Amino acid sequence: MARARLHLICGNCGCNDMWGYRIEPQGTDIDGELFPAVYLSCGNCHTLHDLSDTAKNSNPGQRLSSHNEG
Ligand SMILES: [Zn+2]
């Protein structure tokens, strides 16, 4: 297996080392149904990037269990 080398660069400010992420259990609305979404936040310019804008969901039917909500 190749050594993982992923580089993230903020398209707004160019920062590449101040990332944070969060998972929103109902962050993506697909045809009225809510699915989990992953957001990357730039710690430099505070832009919130939706990961699905760049990467495909490899398991689109996946739902997070409802007891995590709230
Ligand atoms: Zn940025």
Structural notes for this entry:
0% of the residues lie in helices and 36% in strands. The chain is mostly beta strands and 70 residues long. It has a domain at 22-54. The chain has a 3-stranded antiparallel β-sheet with strand order 1-2-3, with no helix packed on it. Strand 2 and strand 3 form a beta hairpin. The protein is globular. The mean pLDDT is 87. Zinc ion binds at residues 10, 12-13, 15, 42, 44-45, 47.
What's the order of the H and E elements?
EEE
Q: Helix/strand-derived class?
A: mainly beta
| Gyration radius, in Å | 14 Å
Beginning-to-end CA distance, first to last residue:
39 Å
**Tally the helices: what do you get?**
0
Q: What does the overall shape look like? A: globular
As residue ranges, the low-confidence spans are none
Number of strands: 3
Q: How much helical structure, as a percent, in the residues?
A: under 10%
What's the short version?
This protein is mainly beta and 70 residues long. The chain is 0% helix and 36% strand.
List its traits.
70 residues, 3-stranded antiparallel beta sheet, 3 strands, binds zinc ion, globular, mainly beta, single chain
Topology:
Blueprint: E1 19-30, E2 33-42, E3 48-50
Antiparallel strand pairs: 1-2, 2-3
The structure holds zinc ion.
Residues 10, 12-13, 15, 42, 44-45, 47 line the site of zinc ion.
